[in-house]
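Attaching the record inline, Q. Sequence:
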Amino acid sequence: MSLNYFNSMDNKINIDLPNQVYYIYIPSHANQNMFSSVFAYDSLLETLRQQTSIEIIGYCLLPTCLHLLVFSKDVPNNWIDPWLMQYNQWHQDTTGESGYLFADEKKRQVLIQPRYLIKALKYVHDIPVKTKLCSRPDQYLYSSYHDYMCSQNTGVQTNRALAALSPHSGQRIRRFEDYMLSTDNNANTALPDGNSDFYFAYAERAYITKAMSLYANGESSQTEQQHLELWQSCLASLSETTQLDTPTLLGIRRHHSLPDAHFLLVWLYIEVAKGPMYIAAKQLGLDEVTLKLNINSIQLHHPEAYLRYIANSWQSNSKVA
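Structure, as predicted:
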């Protein structure tokens, strides 16, 4: 399948807010098949159902890319990468293959204003038709379309979308089928990048402004103590993984095998644990610009597999804690 249609990205600002609906597009690395068997589709959906931070509204699973529509109670960046790592581990365990399945640099998350939810759901269900895998959306097996028609149950919560279609519960499934099979394609070109000039969002400017202001207010109530506890959890996990002591991980002294251990700690705290940059800067006594430059260099100096190992170790330690 050609990905040109999905990669016409302009330079826009990504929105990562809690309590919002998102369309999420995740392609595979090097166009490889993500699903080794029919059971792999079930496994991926099972790992998705296990994410307590989301409500699954819709999906379409293609061999080389995932299209999801979810209500995310937490900021998407806090659960997407751990979820992908969980499925990737299952794939490696069952197939014996190594490597990472997903093209992280091509992932897309588009904030969807609730009033456009039904258009977004239709877009997701129409993807197999647009990519010529079938002639009607109800013919494609690996789609949430069948959850809405009550012919399968894969963890999709249908009430949010069906209520937007009709206030009368007895008419909702019929209204859903009529709308999904209609030839209304208004959302088909706008949705992949969103309709906003500056943000990846399919929403009106006033809605985006309000959502971002509410998030800022919520963030201000989060105490610095919580951020420091997160820093300490990263420090403890990295110490256990690398067998290096605290002074080395804080950059007080250097270790010959891992001279950039303190920047690896910052990478873990910022990129994986999603902690704020200013806390890392205060803990190491460095300016934020220096930290940003060195975080970028971490991925150049260390293999992807090693960084995933560190990230997975922190995730495992966090769950145990």
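The chain is about 45% helix and 10% strand. Residues 16 and 75 are 5 Å apart (CA to CA).

More tomorrow.
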